[in-house]
Amino acid sequence: MGINTKVFFAWRLFPKGTNTLSNTNTLSNTPAYSISLSQLYIINNIYKYSTFHLLLSHLYFYPSPLNINFIWNNGFLIAIITSNQIITGILLAGNYTPEITFSYYSVKHMLREVFNGCSMSYMHSNSSSYIFAFTFIHIYRAIYYNSCSYLPFIWLSGILNLNFFTSTSFIGYLLPWGEMSFWGATVITSLLGVINPSILEYLSGAYFLSDRTLKRFLVIHFTIAFISFGIIFIHLFSLHHQTSNNPSSASTNNKIAFFPFQLSKDNFGLIIIILLLILQIFHPFIILSHADNGSTVNGILTPLHILPEWYFLTYYTLLKAIPNKNTGIIILLNYMLQVQALGEFKIRSNVILYHYPYTINSMSYNSSFILLLLLGSQLPEEKFIVYGRIYLQLSIYLLALIPSLHHRKL
Length: 410
Prior knowledge:
Elements: H1 3-13, H2 37-48, H3 51-59, E1 63-65, H4 74-93, H5 103-112, H6 117-144, H7 147-150, H8 152-174, H9 179-190, H10 192-195, H11 197-204, H12 211-242, E2 255-257, H13 258-282, H14 313-321, H15 325-340, H16 356-376, H17 382-406
Antiparallel strand pairs: 1-2
Helix pairs in contact: 1-2, 4-6, 4-12, 4-13, 5-6, 6-8, 6-13, 8-9, 8-12, 14-15, 14-16, 14-17, 16-17
């Protein structure tokens, strides 16, 4: 924002009158823009430390690489959908009762009796799937174009936010108190006893899921949601401080202003997502939740196949593939930390787009991740467990190869 623009705002706030500089000391040749130095100093500080300045610097003047494509829109879409999740969550919480006797019926009351409660509820539940879909694409793009090593702090903050998204979604999955959410939460919370038996008691307020569990999970659900939303802003500010990566995976000075060029691309993707979300809410074309979660909790009868939401299926496959519970927890944590450790490896060259071993390795890792996700939806039969072990070893091996392939000098 140049000095003429600042003087323009000063002229709007302080019209020409008394206590102004003479024409020889003014910052503009136009007499109407003449202000005092003290007034200009105050306005400059207000502008410098204002939210308006931050918005302009990150949404208007930010120099964005010219050659980025639509895959770079995912971060913008994740931020918008997360904002929508917080708004709809606050509205839904006003009609939710965190008690095991009334929680299921309070959700049904929202669907049937509250004005637009059905739309808000389905929007909140379906938008979580959109967040994870865009997050997975966002992470794979960062691995494919080497952003994980080129921008290490941004990579670490992004993976940290993925862990917060996972925790928030898992806790929110229990709140409707449906059949599948109850048994899924029972299985996952029982794994906490492997780390320390007292963790489950402190978290749940008892030795099993109860009223206290719902109340605590509701508070934790809101707390982590706002924390993850704050990390999104840290992620965004860090990205704009260091500048974005691009498809050539090399530093470039060929940049354009974020507004209106890149923002128009982001808005185009946002319009498509809004249309898909509206279609999913009113005319669902993809079944994203299990049908058993629409029935009340039966603590005596276990479902034939306990199946979490689709974005947890990769982690669910890891737990099913390992027969020992302790070993499964260790391998799951190792798998998550191994992805986060990619940002700790420095590289000699950023130009890896035409480095075929690295490209093939990153595509193979993405394929193994998708196969683990598909295997998680299958029944725990022997052949699927064996397949899960094979693809688990392959996924860990391919992930470990990424830093070594980085160090090839091109």
